[in-house]
Design brief:
- There is one protein chain.
- The chain is of the alpha+beta class.
- It has helices at 4-18, 38-41, 46-55; strands at 22-25, 31-35, 67-71, 74-83, 86-96.
- It has a 5-stranded antiparallel β-sheet, with helices on both faces.
């Protein structure tokens, strides 16, 4: 799965199975495809999340393993897809949370 079009298909399947947003990022830092629940997409904070995801410098990281990062207490991980040592796209999973938010009573 090294081509961007294959990454887009895989991203959709992954999002369908795990129920977490998935973004496919073009090497030029634009969002090629996104798969997220409509309720998340209608959230006013989602635009900020999209901008953060698209603006991250994925090309600076190795492609051999997933990289985990946190932004504003939200968790993400990504994997770079390579084709003959050239970045063809990035699969980003998130945001998700490892713990339940604490609600004051």
């Amino acid at each position: 799965m090294n081509k961007l079009s294959e990454l887009v298909v895989f991203g959709q399947l992954l999002s369908d199975v795990i129920g977490i947003p998935v973004f496919i990022i073009h090497p030029g830092r634009t969002i090629e495809a996104e798969y997220a629940d409509r309720s998340l997409q209608s959230n006013p904070y989602f635009t900020s999340i999209r901008e953060q995801v698209a603006g991250y410098a994925y090309a600076l990281y190795a492609a051999e393993q997933p990289v985990h990062f946190t932004r504003s207490r939200l968790q993400y991980f990504f994997v770079n897809a390579m084709d003959e040592n050239q970045l063809t796209g990035t699969l980003v999973v998130g945001p998700y949370m490892n713990e339940q938010p604490h609600v004051a009573e």
